[in-house]
UniProtKB/TrEMBL annotation:
Protein known as: DoxX-like family protein
Domain of life: Bacteria
UniProt entry tagged with the keyword Transmembrane: yes
Keyword hit for Transmembrane: yes
Residues spanning the membrane: 12-30, 42-65, 72-90, 96-115
């Protein structure tokens, strides 16, 4: 049962990264993401940087599904989600889908990542 929940969690987490990376950023399905990047990293290179971030998010989905070094993968996700959302909270709060509530949603996602990666993980 624990292994089944872990596999389901892997798929769910990978979907989050894939949707945000591929649809929202690479395919520009949510143009607001580029506005957030421009606010934080500058307007000059916002478009290519948004695509690079999207590509890296797709790679994160692949890493999650690969099962390679799952605890390092979990730690990387926790740090990335935390840093991204803190920066967005302070520098682009008005552009966020849920405004100030985004930081709460990110915290819940971080807790779920921790539970998945460190409590449900079958890695010894």
């Amino acid at each position: 049962m624990k292994e089944r929940m872990y596999k389901f969690g892997n798929i769910a987490i990978a979907i989050v990264w894939m949707v945000n990376g591929l649809f929202c950023k690479l395919l520009n399905g949510v143009p607001r993401h580029e506005l957030i990047v421009s606010r934080i990293l500058g307007l000059t290179y916002a478009s290519p940087l948004t695509r690079i971030i999207g590509f890296l998010e797709v790679l994160m989905a692949v890493w999650v599904l690969s099962g390679i070094k799952p605890r390092w993968c979990t730690l990387s996700q926790i740090v990335l989600v935390g840093v991204m959302n803190i920066l967005e909270f302070f520098m682009a709060r008005d552009l966020l889908l849920f405004g100030s509530l985004n930081i709460v949603i990110a915290a819940i996602f971080i807790i779920l990542l921790y539970i998945h990666g460190y409590r449900l993980s079958v890695e010894k």
